[in-house]
């Protein structure tokens, strides 16, 4: 038992993986050849062993929680004598910059879509609720990008409130890692999916001027966790890969283009400094302290391999 896992049941990888074989066909998550092909096309670094051992039982667990949610909703409607639409089942995913939140979220979306249909499972990130680089600079907050004060929390809270309100249509502002900024006047539009996944570093954080938290709107919350030294390594590897891609694409409008104009060693040195002065303090001061609020923790080790699942008791 890990010392830090207070109030959690810690399930080791092999025990979690063994759950898949014990499930009935209706409980188990469907992994079609098409879903596998989609996963590989999305990120060929993902280990298929993790897909089967970790993600298949995880998707089954989400399906189970969703079925409970549906029953609960129907009973409540019957009690109140109402026939409104069921609002989406909201899954929040939190964790450090570069720990793999968006990869996990996209994987869960692809696997749930294979089971429930494409339109049923939506995904968005809270990155779009960051203030634009221009707004951050005007407020002298550019070096605090990703910290709580760099987000428009009011807009994020209003967005999750609209989802839970069962709004016929909601939209979230888009963020581009290519330009490292919010895309002005660009939105993703969602029309009442059954499951809504929201990933972001701040999904389990409190909001300074609001009595409610974003996580009050979650039906299930997941924290992606790993040792800090590993996350730094993943951050630098991703930086290196994105710099390489900008070089190959020869695209000066790409945010990473400027890093191709200086020697690799110098670029890596700067990225390490951004990690040390921005993302690491953010992790230690504001993100990691929210871990214990999650219903489920995916604990990763070397190579993104998930070695433990922590389930809230
Ligand atoms: N399961 C995995 N297997 C292999 N590589 C992975 C896995 N998950 C994430 N990665 C890699 O780790 C890096 C960080 O992942 P990702 O971009 O998903 O992180 P993130 O937490 O969403 O980051 P940010 O908060 O900055 O958006 C990427 O290079 C990604 O390809
Ligand atoms: C957009 C966020 C805040 C979160 O995904 C992050 O990727 C980021 O840009 N952090 C700021 C420091 C940096 O450039 O890494």
UniProtKB/TrEMBL annotation:
Pathway: Cofactor biosynthesis; coenzyme A biosynthesis; CoA from (R)-pantothenate: step 1/5. The keyword Translocase does not apply. It is found in: Cytoplasm. GO terms for molecular function: ATP binding; pantothenate kinase activity. It catalyses: (R)-pantothenate + ATP = (R)-4'-phosphopantothenate + ADP + H(+). The keyword ATP-binding applies. GO terms for cellular component: cytoplasm. Its EC number is 2.7.1.33. Residues 90-238 form the Phosphoribulokinase/uridine kinase domain. PANTHER family: URIDINE KINASE (PTHR10285). This is Pantothenate kinase. It comes from Weissella muntiaci.
């Amino acid at each position: 038992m890990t010392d830090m896992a207070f109030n959690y049941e810690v399930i080791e990888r092999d025990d979690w993986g063994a759950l898949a074989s014990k499930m009935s066909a209706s409980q188990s998550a469907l992994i079609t050849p098409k879903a596998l092909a989609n996963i590989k096309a999305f990120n060929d670094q993902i280990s298929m062993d993790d897909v089967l051992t970790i993600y298949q039982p995880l998707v089954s667990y989400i399906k189970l929680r969703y079925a409970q949610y549906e029953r609960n909703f129907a009973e409540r409607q019957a009690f109140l004598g109402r026939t409104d639409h069921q609002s989406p089942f909201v899954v929040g995913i939190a964790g450090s910059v570069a720990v793999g939140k968006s990869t996990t979220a996209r994987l869960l979306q692809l696997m749930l879509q294979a089971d429930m249909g494409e339109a049923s499972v939506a995904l968005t990130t809270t990155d779009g609720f960051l203030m634009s680089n221009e707004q951050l600079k005007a407020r002298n907050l550019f070096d605090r990008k990703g910290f709580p004060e760099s987000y428009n929390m009011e807009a994020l809270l209003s967005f999750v409130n609209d989802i839970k309100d069962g709004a016929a249509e909601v939209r979230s502002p888009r963020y581009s890692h290519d330009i490292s900024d919010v895309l002005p006047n660009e939105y993703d539009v969602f029309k009442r999916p059954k499951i809504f996944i929201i990933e972001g570093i701040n999904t389990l954080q409190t909001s300074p001027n609001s009595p409610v938290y974003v996580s009050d709107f979650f039906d299930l919350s997941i924290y992606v966790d790993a040792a800090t030294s590993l996350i730094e390594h993943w951050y630098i590897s991703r930086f290196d890969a994105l710099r390489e891609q900008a070089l190959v694409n020869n695209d000066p409008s790409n945010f990473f283009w400027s890093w191709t104009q200086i020697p690799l060693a110098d670029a890596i040195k700067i990225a390490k400094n951004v990690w040390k002065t921005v993302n690491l303090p953010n992790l230690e001061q504001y993100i990691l302290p929210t871990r214990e609020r999650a219903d489920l923790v995916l604990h990763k080790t070397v190579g993104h391999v998930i070695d433990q699942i922590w389930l809230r008791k």
